[in-house]
């Protein structure tokens, strides 16, 4: 597993690393922009990817974006990426079949 994906970092450390308050981070979680894991005791745990994501969110908020706009932008990006992957799979599948048939289909 990639070390950047491991959710080991507590919210206090995240605050120190990002300059964000616990309140801001919890707000982003409430708005479903960030998804920390929880320990058995309920402590939020974040990854380095989460920290990068929080910095990206904070930057967009400073630029005047609202949380719903950030969420919509993320959804659009994910849809676009998924569509690109599907197109690639289709092209790979049918491209191989067309190559096998040769130029005089």
From TrEMBL:
It holds the Pfam family MerR_1. Residues 8-76 form the HTH merR-type domain. It comes from the Bacteria. Keywords: DNA-binding, Repressor, Transcription, Transcription regulation. InterPro entries: DNA-bd_dom_put_sf (IPR009061), MerR-type_HTH_dom (IPR000551), MerR_fam (IPR047057). One of its GO terms (molecular function) is DNA-binding transcription factor activity. PANTHER family: HTH-TYPE TRANSCRIPTIONAL REGULATOR TNRA, REDOX-CYCLING DRUG-SENSING TRANSCRIPTIONAL ACTIVATOR SOXR. This is DNA-binding transcriptional MerR regulator.
């Amino acid at each position: 597993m990639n070390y950047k994906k491991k959710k080991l970092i507590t919210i206090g450390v995240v605050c120190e690393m990002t300059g964000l308050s616990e309140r801001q981070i919890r707000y982003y979680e409430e708005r479903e922009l960030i998804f920390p894991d929880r320990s058995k005791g309920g402590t939020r745990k974040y990854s380095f990817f989460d920290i990068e994501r929080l910095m990206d969110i904070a930057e967009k908020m400073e630029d005047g974006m609202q949380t719903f706009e950030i969420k919509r932008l993320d959804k659009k990006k994910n849809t676009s990426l998924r569509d690109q992957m599907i197109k690639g799979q289709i092209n790979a599948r049918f491209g191989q079949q067309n190559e096998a048939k040769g130029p005089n289909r």
